[in-house]
Design a protein that fits this description.
CATH superfamily of the largest domain: MetI-like
Mean pLDDT: 84
Strand content: under 5%
Largest sheet: 2 strands, antiparallel
Strand order of the largest sheet: 1-2
Number of strands: 2
Oligomer: single chain
CATH architecture of the largest domain: Orthogonal Bundle
Number of domains: 2
CATH class of the largest domain: Mainly Alpha
């Protein structure tokens, strides 16, 4: 019996070594694929940055106006004259207003679906919201242009009467229906399903022990949300908001359909303007010379850097919140 047992142990040892070697080989392959995938993404982003710089620098060198301060856009002149402050302002303010409208609603919907709604209602409602993210932006643009705009005039006038003393909401610069505010409303609707879906998933991961501890101490449902759910989900909500902000900054077709151009600059969101993306899309047919094309690529480079800066700030905020909560 002892010899038989000994043979069995000797026979089992090589098979175990083979299994361990196969497992380690799989780990090495997976690690290599992971590192390669990350490196590929970084290389692609770097290639895009190099392309934008290479095409933009000649036009920036030939530009006779200040690229950062001049309120003129004539890249076809000889020499070309173009600046980005107006485009930068409309891009940033439309996205910020969209976030102010969308994020509170998204967080409220996510809290309702995870903390209040019964499962038989929460599942189909969540699926419906997720489907909104699949709607093409051109559909949102058409819907906003032909339906939503009819309901925004009264809202713009009401806000202007109450907050018109603030230049951002002034009605003195001939407000129009196809305004920056109208574009922001459409952007808010577009990013709402993204922020809602991510916030919902984060809130659903709140440790049950934290919630039960708060309930055991006599907390109400809202106090549980305020003391347990929101602190746990805050980094996720910030990440979701930054993802939505990135979508808003780069949106093209919907903004092109909604916001009209105006001849003069205004600080008010109730007038028109153009974002980086909508300006590039509207004038894409005019890319007939390298200098003119380079001017638009330079505008795209600014949008590229702006999006990177937003994500970098979001990452810093999230890491600080994690350190604070841990």
């Amino acid at each position: 019996m002892s010899s038989i047992t000994g043979h069995s142990e000797l026979d089992a040892a090589p098979s175990g070594d083979v299994a361990g070697s196969t497992s380690r080989r799989g780990d090495r392959i997976f690690a290599g694929l992971s590192v390669g995938s990350g490196a590929l993404v970084v290389a692609l982003i770097g290639a895009v940055a190099v392309f934008l710089l290479a095409r933009a620098i000649p036009s920036l060198a030939a530009n006779s106006a200040n690229f950062l301060t001049a309120r003129v856009w004539n890249p076809g002149d000889n020499p070309p004259q173009f600046g980005i402050p107006d485009l930068l302002w409309v891009t940033v303010i439309s996205s910020v207003v969209a976030m102010v409208i969308s994020v509170p609603v998204s967080v409220g919907v996510a809290l309702y679906l995870t903390q209040y709604a019964p499962p038989r209602l929460a599942r189909p409602f969540a699926a419906t919201i997720d489907l909104l993210a699949a709607v093409p932006s051109v559909v949102y643009g058409l819907w906003g242009a032909y339906v939503v705009l009819d309901y925004l005039d009264g809202i713009q006038t009401g806000i202007g009467k109450v907050l018109g003393w603030i230049p951002l909401f002034s009605l003195e610069d001939t407000p129009i229906s196809n305004s920056i505010f109208a574009g922001s409303v459409i952007l808010a609707i577009m990013i709402l399903p993204i922020v809602t879906a991510l916030s919902r998933e984060v809130f659903a991961q709140t440790p049950t022990a934290h919630m039960e501890a708060a309930l055991a101490l006599g907390a109400t449902r809202w106090e549980v949300i305020r003391t347990a759910v929101l602190p746990f989900g805050r980094p996720g909500v910030i990440s979701a908001s930054m993802l939505g902000l990135g979508r808003a900054l780069g949106e093209t077709i919907a903004v092109l359909f909604i916001i009209n151009t105006v001849p003069t600059f205004s600080w008010s969101v109730f007038t028109g303007g153009e974002t980086f993306a909508s300006r590039i899309a509207r004038d894409a047919g005019e890319f007939d010379t390298p200098e003119k094309t380079g001017a638009y690529i330079a505008a795209g480079l600014v949008l590229f850097v702006l999006t990177f800066a937003v994500n970098a700030v979001a990452r810093v905020v999230i890491e600080r919140r994690k350190a604070f909560t841990e």
